[in-house]
Amino acid sequence: MATLPADPFATGIAAFAEDLRAGRTSAVAATEACLARIEALNPKLDAFQLVDGPRARAAAAAIDALLAAGTDLGPLMGVPIGVKDIIAVEGLPTTNGSLYRTAHLTGPEGTIVQRLKEAGCVILGKTKTVEFALGATGVNEARGTPWNPWDSSIQRIPGGSSSGSAVATAAGLCAFALGTDTGGSVRIPACFTGLFGHKTTTGLWPTDGVFPLSPTLDSIGPLCRNAGDAAIVHAVITGTAVPLPSRVEDLRLGRPAAPFTDDLDATVSAAFESAVVALQAAGVEIVDIDVPEAAERRTLFPAIVPPELIARLTPEGFAAARDRMDPTTAQRAAGGLEISAVAHLAAQYRRVELERIAAEKLDGLDGWITPTCPFVPMPVDALQHPDEAQRALLSSRNTQAANLFGICAASLPITQFGAQLPVGLMLMCARGADSDLLSRSMALEQVLGTGPAPDLDGFL
User: Fold this and answer.
1) Is the pLDDT of residue 156 over 80?
2) At what angle do helices 266-281 and 434-448 cross, to 10 degrees?
3) What Å distances lie between residue 53 and 39, 92, 101, 164, 413, CA to CA?
4) Are 80 and 36 in contact (CB under 8 A)?
5) CATH number of the domain that residue 281 is part of
6) Where in the sequence numbering do the catalytic residues fall?
């Protein structure tokens, strides 16, 4: 069996930053370790659409030279990352997960990638995505589906649409990876691969240079090993101080019931209830609340997202692309052709009302907690069966509410509470309260832990 190089970020970004400045490691060493892990694991994991080894090595060497010359770019200096392939990176192709050419719709490299480069991040390459980011399971028949690293014998869904970013981070192929979240596309793959995923408040992180699935709901966010790593990334992107952990015993969290708790796997229900008991024992006040408006996602999402995608592709462009598209994505997108302008605007008006309702229901609470997804990652082959394919559609049932409510959210792993496959707990906080979300997530991690890493021996 091949020997897998050690994961340089197993203990987090802050620990790496300390070692880097103490001379115990280097950007080149970290980058080479990640590239070696990619070479060993990516042939089966298929997390990366493209690996940019030569430029990554050159960037890492330049970072080490800067540090040696006394220039410190901050806590992300020398950190190797992956970028979801609906986000433009200068000098690299953008496929948007499709065989149909749409790089011109994504445009040139945008603000987020530029800020990460300026902070000293080393871009390893582009990670796989569901086609046009429209899909929650992570399956992409057009360009391939990444293999969930939690099971080497059975290919399980990695979650979407930021599938490759999640698999790459969970398998230690990079320190963290950028994803996007329109209806759960950061939190779902974080849940299914045992990671921390941060869905930022829409509009807080600039989305120029990102394929516009739904300008109304799109957001960018990172997939990370823990909340502390996400806090560092958020601080660098926003130019603010790194959030510090809240006091656990000061937290007052709402626990919504239906639809968030409907039809849960027994494993998910048990892990979530155990996590809630652990939080209560640590002093967190848990308040039962009702948020029935979350069920409106069934009518509002189809009226908002597919029409905005079709508008961007144009009906003619979609017709030209459709025969080569992933069939599930094509079917979902085609629904946008049937939505009238009146129906689209009515959904938008209702969405604005829901933002107000959510703000009122969050008043007096530090957030809401729910299971992230109602089931553990199912085998990809199970999607061939109608009943399982129908259940797979529930991947985004709990996550879509945060997008419609205009709030921020995160998925934290709770696999450690008796589950064999990844389970996630979602924390939702008020609009614009992303720093608080991360502070509270770090507090919850002090009680819940960060979850185990997957066993990768079977992939070598």
Assistant:
1) yes
2) 90
3) 10, 12, 24, 17, 31
4) no
5) 3.90.1300.10
6) 84, 161, 185
270 and 378 Cβ atoms separated by less than 8 Å:
no
> CA angle, 422 as apex, 34 and 235 as ends, to 5°?
55
Note down the domain range covering 401. 13-459
**Number of residues that make up the chain:** 460
175 closest CA partner among 221, 225, 127, 128: 225
Strand partners, 254: 287, 368
Residue 401 lies in a domain: yes
Q: For the chain, give the mean pLDDT.
A: 97
User: What CA–CA distance (Å, rounded) separates 421 from 192?
Assistant: 8
**Residue 2 — pLDDT band, cuts 50, 70, 90?**
low
Q: Is 233 domain-assigned? A: yes
CA–CA dist 177, 125 (Å, integer):
10
Task: State pLDDT tens for residues 62-84.
Answer: 999 999 999 999 999 999 999 99
> What is the three-class DSSP state of 412?
strand
Omega before 292 within 30 of 0, i.e. cis: no
C-alpha closest to that of 133 among 340, 369, 423, 332 = 332
Q: Phi and psi for 87 in degrees, rounded to 5?
A: -115, 125
Q: Buried (b) or exposed (e) across 94-113, using 16+ Cβ within 10 A?
A: bbbbbebebeebbeebbebb
